Structures are given as structure tokens and as C-alpha cells.
Amino acid sequence: MAKSDDLDRDELHYAALRNDVDLIRQRLAAGVPVSMRERREGYTPLHFAAQDGAAAAVDALLSAGADVDALSNRGQSPLWLAVMNSRRAPDGVVVRTLLEHGADRNLRDQGGQSPLELAQRIHPFPLEWFDEVPEGKQ
């Protein structure tokens, strides 16, 4: 279970970025914690997958027990990153998947901004993605 680089990023983090579900499963089977944090930003593999629009990786990590509301060093949740980088997943599947797994749309980062407020500021962000999943859905 050796770290793969000097930022404490395991292959699991990179597999999440690449949407490589097979490698995600291999690393988890090898005992790598699903919510392992890297050092620079405090991101978990779910943060990487959400920020990059890697829908299959998001689903695999959540199914393996990843913390849907894990906060980075700046207080950013995976949902916050998915909203900020929504151009990478323009179909909204990552945002909806996180919401369906109970992501808190009102969880504020260190700057005081929630994913919902961020979505309202991004033009043109399809706010209906938030409406499609009732708040508090688990």
C-alpha cells in the first residue's frame, strides 16, 4: 500500500482522475482507504473524481463507502468541486449522483460559499440539476 508520490497521492487518486474503475477496485482491495487524503489540497479520491467529471469513478467510490461530504483543506466538498468544474461533466451526472448519495448542497467552504450558491453564480449553470434531487436525499 505504498504512496505513489511525495504528495501522499496513491494510485487510487490517479485512478479516480482517469475514471479507471478497475484500478479503483484493485487499490481498494489492496487495502487503500477509500477516503485517503493527499497532502497538498487535502483531497480524497472522490474530490479528484468529482472535480474531473469522472462519473463511473464517483459511483464506484461512493459504493465503496467514500464520505460524500469530505472537506478539503479549504473546506471544499466533492459537490462543490463538481459544481465549480461542471463543464467537465455537462450532463450533470456527477452533481446528481453526489446529491442522490446525500451530499449537502448547503455545506460552505472556507470562503463561505455553498455548492448551491456557487451554482447560482456560474452562468450558465443548469440549476435544475439541484431541483431533480430532493434536498436531504439519502
Can you walk through the features of this model?
Helices cover 43% and strands 0% of the residues. The protein has 138 residues and is mainly α. It has a single domain (11-131), classed as Serine Threonine Protein Phosphatase 5, Tetratricopeptide repeat (Alpha Horseshoe). The longest helix is centred in the N-terminal third of the chain and has 9 residues, at 21-29.
Q: Which CATH first-tier class would you pick?
A: Mainly Alpha
CATH architecture: Alpha Horseshoe
Unreliable spans: none
N-to-C order of helices and strands? HHHHHHHH
Total of helices: 8
Distance between the termini: 32 Å
**Gross morphology:** globular
The CATH fourth-level homologous superfamily: Ankyrin repeat-containing domain
Taking the sheet with the most strands, its summary is: none
Helix/strand-derived category reads mainly alpha
What is the β-strand count? 0
Mean pLDDT: 92
* Beta-strand content: under 5%
Question: What's the layout of helices and strands?
Answer:
Layout: H1 11-18, H2 21-29, H3 45-52, H4 55-63, H5 78-84, H6 93-100, H7 115-121, H8 128-131
Helix pairs in contact: 1-2, 1-3, 3-4, 3-5, 4-6, 5-6, 5-7
ANK repeats: 41-73, 74-110
Protein name: Ankyrin repeat protein
InterPro entries: Ankyrin_rpt, Ankyrin_rpt-contain_sf
